[in-house]
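Limitations

Structures in this collection are predictions, not experimental determinations, and the ligand pose is part of the prediction. Treat each record accordingly. The example that follows, with GLP as the small molecule, is included so readers can see exactly what is and is not provided: the inputs are given verbatim, and the output is the predicted complex.
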Amino acid sequence: MQIVILPSADAVAEYGANLFIRQLTDKPGSVLGLATGSTPLALYQLLVNACRQQQVSFARAKTFNLDEYLGLAGDHPQSYRYFMQQHLFNAIDILPENTAVPDGTATDPVAACQQYERQIADAGGIDLQLLGLGRNGHIGFNEPSSGLRSRTRIKTLTPATIADNARFFQPGEYQPHLSITMGIGTILDAGKVLLLATGTSKASAVKAMIEGPLTAACPASALQLHQQAVVVLDDAAAAELADIEFYRHIERENQALLKRLSGQ
Ligand code: GLP
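Predicted complex:
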């Protein structure tokens, strides 16, 4: 796990956006795994700006979103498909047919999950997967106790996650308790994983993910098994890490090495 600690949420977004831009520059036909939630919003805005300024193109890219509420159609304002259209897809040059979000209204959702896995495999697998982090350590909608090798499937949301996400729904509005989510095994198959976490509310989940044991009780701890996982934190989200000075030291060394190698 590469742990990058930056002074602000804006710096986290910029770091993440630059990784995406580099990925698309190196491989314009990249398969990108995307996330929803408030954390990636600033990163998406930077990608929109970069696309408008022709610094990056999604014309040959394909995307797969992590998850969707079961029972919400893509035109529902709280659906993750709607979120992606509003915050990214409508504002970049991606082809609509190259964007995939699990179908929350599939008549056979179990078959739809298997189909989603096949679609990812047919696209050649995910090159770069973006993740946020739930306060309980979830990634996608893989709640605590999720199988560490799980694949795309239906998951019941915990009361804590339902409460956390209630802020996006109107009072009295139907809020689903079920979701379709890529599994932890699906996420671990991505070539690279980029997890962003900002703010004090994420600090204890961040500690469990990085310094806790590998356990289904903290699904994000599964990233300890990944060969190319980058975790980008702001100071607030990193605040509970016991070895914070060590992680900062490693990053300084990494930067110095990169500078030396590039002859600067
Ligand atoms: C939801 C999403 C996750 C996301 C999490 C954190 O539960 N399914 O993918 O990481 O919320 O959201 P936020 O970034 O708003 O804290």
